[in-house]
Write a structure and sequence with these properties.
Distance between the termini: 35 Å
Oligomer: single chain
Radius of gyration: 19 Å
Strand content: 35-45%
Number of helices: 3
Number of strands: 10
Largest sheet: 4 strands, mixed
Order of helices and strands: EEEEEEEHEEEHH
Length: 187
Amino acid sequence: MNTMPLEEKQIQSKRIYEGKIVNLRVDTVLLPNGREALREVIEHVGAVCVVPVMPDGTTYMVRQYRYPFGEAVLEIPAGKLDAGEQPVDAANRELEEEIGMKASELIYMGEFRPSVAYDLEVIHMYLARGLVATQQHLDDDEFLDVETYSLHAIYDMIMDNRLTDGKTIAAVLKAKALIDRENGLEK
């Protein structure tokens, strides 16, 4: 088997857009074969997403209008990290902001990288349990409906392609696998 180094080395970088949520840069890179290529890179500070599950399996979701797709999307609570904020703190903040709950237990389920070809965003996934009602306080530009489903119903929506948000799919499947393992149901 012929193995070639895979690393691409940055030669030049130019930021072409700075926004509220993302920045965009275009890098010139040196490929392993010695040729040059352009790489467009979206810079993002990172985010969290949370699967809030009650002891009976009831799971909180939010339905939010997502402008790029022109539709309201069903997804788990999520949001970007504030400057210097730890992901676990952001997870509890987002729970309270979006669904009016805090969790006494947040289980870290790993990272989700939505699109590794051009996006630096890393979403930290959590399973939230021990939910206690507080007060919902949405951001000024945030409008959403809180909905509840059984974890099994959400799993079915994923498998039937009725739920298509990437972070929600990854986090719910991981949360279900973790809960199934805890309950001795793993295959």
